């Protein structure tokens, strides 16, 4: 799995020293093999280098989950060119290059290959993030068609607002009230759907944007 502490350090939640090592140890305790890899996706060569490192250490990669994001709130009038370009470099170009490097390890009919990307429907007041995620959607849907002959499926998951500790109590209450099932999403809700899409049972789902959000905004 990938991480980038410099970005976390610039955000309100901050970077947590050795958090990736602790997480890797937890995964190993469950019987999984884990390799934390620091990746700055704003650099064009980073995606291929990261996947090459993983393959060298752990062998062929069967699944790619793109859950990364660069997100700084701004709108049409106050977004800088630098911020716009960085959002697209990380969220859009970075994901395309990850998908490209992932697919290049496959020969025709290789078998089970899975791509799942997390997306968003943000628009107003979150211009560069929302626009970069919209472009990401098109890339993943293209992958579902262009990589099908390699035995690869590609899907998107829009998880809605997820309670990972970043929300104020007021915002959490507001978003829960706007969700049909009456609560915020939890990380496990998203993980369960991603796990299904990565499985053999999820192999017939391809090229889809799935909303796993408890009915968020259905009544608005």
What can you see in these coordinates?
The protein has 220 residues and is of the alpha/beta class. It has a domain at 62-211: 3-Layer(aba) Sandwich (Rossmann fold). It is built from seven helices and six strands. The chain has a four-stranded parallel sheet with strand order 3-4-5-6, with helices on both faces. Helix 3 runs parallel beside helix 4 and helix 4 runs parallel beside helix 5. The longest helix is centred in the middle third of the chain and has 23 residues, at 81-103. The radius of gyration is 18 Å and the shape is globular. It starts with a strand and ends in a 9-residue tail after the last strand.
Please sum up the structure shown:
By secondary structure, this protein is α/β, with parallel strands linked by helices. The protein is built from seven helices and six strands, in the order E-H-H-E-H-E-H-E-H-E-H-H-E. Helices cover 43% and strands 11% of the residues.
What are the key terms here?
6 strands; Rossmann fold; alpha/beta; two-stranded parallel sheet; 4-stranded parallel β-sheet
Poorly predicted regions are none
- Portion in strands: 5-15%
Structural class: alpha/beta
**Shape descriptor:** globular
CATH class label of the domain at 62-211 = Alpha Beta
Distance between the termini: 37 Å
Mean pLDDT: 94
SSE inventory with pairings:
Blueprint: E1 2-3, H1 5-10, H2 19-29, E2 37-38, H3 46-58, E3 63-66, H4 81-103, E4 113-118, H5 127-146, E5 152-158, H6 169-177, H7 187-198, E6 209-211
Parallel strand pairs: 1-2, 3-4, 4-5, 5-6
């Amino acid at each position: 799995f990938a991480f980038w502490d410099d970005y976390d350090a610039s955000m309100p939640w901050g970077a947590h020293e050795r958090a990736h090592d602790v997480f890797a140890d937890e995964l190993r305790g469950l019987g999984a093999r884990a390799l934390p890899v620091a990746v700055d996706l704003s650099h064009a060569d980073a995606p291929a280098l990261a996947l090459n490192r993983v393959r060298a250490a752990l062998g062929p990669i069967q699944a790619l989950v793109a859950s990364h994001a660069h997100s700084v709130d701004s709108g049409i009038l106050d977004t800088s060119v630098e911020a716009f370009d960085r959002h697209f470099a990380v969220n859009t170009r970075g994901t395309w290059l990850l998908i490209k490097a992932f697919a290049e390890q496959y020969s025709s009919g290789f078998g089970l290959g899975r791509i799942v990307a997390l997306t968003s429907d943000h628009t107003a007041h979150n211009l560069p993030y929302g626009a970069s995620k919209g472009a990401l959607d098109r890339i993943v849907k293209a992958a579902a068609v262009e990589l099908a002959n390699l035995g690869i499926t590609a899907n998107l998951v829009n998880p809605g607002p997820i309670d990972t500790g970043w929300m104020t109590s007021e915002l959490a209450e507001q978003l829960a009230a706007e969700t049909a099932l009456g609560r915020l999403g939890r990380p496990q809700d998203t993980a369960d759907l991603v796990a299904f899409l990565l499985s053999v049972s999820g192999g017939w789902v391809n090229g889809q944007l799935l909303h796993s959000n408890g009915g968020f905004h259905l009544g608005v």
